[in-house]
Prior knowledge:
The protein is mainly alpha-helical.
Amino acid sequence: MTASEMAATGGPAWTVEDTEAPSHYVLTGGQTRPTHDLQIQTLLWAEGEPPPGQPREAEQAVALCRGRPLAVAEIGALIGLPFQITRILMSRLIDIGALNTMSATDSAALPDVALLKALRDALHTL
């Protein structure tokens, strides 16, 4: 039922269900950008406990990361938040020491693609 339909029937313009979940603005404290460059595949794991007063979603994220590292995208999907909001909350948890990131591998340390292709081709000829 829309707000205009409710108003026409004399009912409230909103329902209790509309006010139960906090808005994304409240979850992020109005913050619009994360403090860390978290990508979809960035892995996070729990390092500590979030301080009291953190949103329920922050506590859920830390609990999820306690057993094993999870990607930012997985965390967002499991706690039901959009990616950008998840990045902001996860950045905040990193800043307070509750979460830590797995550092990205330096591209110079990766094996040469041409070498890997040559190895693959040589194995196929065996």
